[in-house]
Amino acid sequence: MGYRFGYYDGICNTVQMAACPLLGANQVGYEPTCYARNIEVRSALIFQMATLIIDIIALFMTVIMIFHIRSKYTAVGRKEMVLFFYLYFLMTILDFITISGIIPISSVVYPYFVAGYLGLTSAMCWCLMLNGFIGFQWAEDGTAASLWTFRLSSLIIFGVMYFVSIATFKDIGALSKAHPIGLFIVYFIFNPFCLLVYVVLQIILVVNTLDEYWPLGNICFALVFFVIGQVIQIFLSDKICEGIKHYVDGVFFGTICTLLSVMMVYKYWDSITKEDLEFSVGGKGNVWEVKELLHEDDEFAPYAGQAANTVGHAGVSFANTGSVYGGQGYPQQQLPPQQQQQQLQYQQQPHYQQQAYPPY
Description:
mainly alpha; disordered C terminus
């Protein structure tokens, strides 16, 4: 059975996709000629076990990437980029649920979970494309206008794809599961188009604004991994499945390549965003011991103890104060002997002792 534009029969005959059982002219849907082995756990069949392990790894890696993105407090487009990884995290969860058999295909809620998975996939691609425009300063990143543009537009794309999916599965209106042209266009044309626009924008951004072209390697690797994963999954899945005795199929390799592609997108973003350490917030800064910086024969050695105590009470490093606020933090210079005598006499007067502040 060959590949036809607007039809899923050739694709679903090759690879096991979540939407395949819901498409086709009959009630059974499409089934692949070869798919990975199932395992039985307490009388329950678990499908695509190897792919599920990759999904778990992907969730773990996504949490790490989100943590690192959120920790770069002054990086450009931080809040916009983290939205893409939130969508990928949710998409991976639904992928885990739909391909594993946790929700049976015969369940009445299965089509709605598949529609959610497809909607999140399109919203994720759309969000990544919008991130491609951040470097061109179409709107100031991190502002309400930028963030709500991302959120609302991604929600609209999710809603459109969700409606198209449900309408296709239920034969609502002009959409039909026997000829799912709408679903095909959105999933196989609109989503890759968004990804292609992002790659082109990043190439233009790096070439025109950066002094070095090393980040292009990351974005090119992301594109290569994605293309390889789609080719293996759509065109070679049945051949791989038959060649290795049904242990894994193209879905396994496609999931791996998608994870690698997302990781390279993070690596690319991390390489082009430099955090301004002067204004970054850390849990514990480098606290320098003043006594180690001053020698006994130094001119300011008598003030080392006083400066160290000040650091201890205030919780702020003597040297760090100068680095953050631009000052030097030099200790107070020694007064001439005559002025020292006058200051000592003034401090011994009763009115000075009454106004003195209590200790900490």
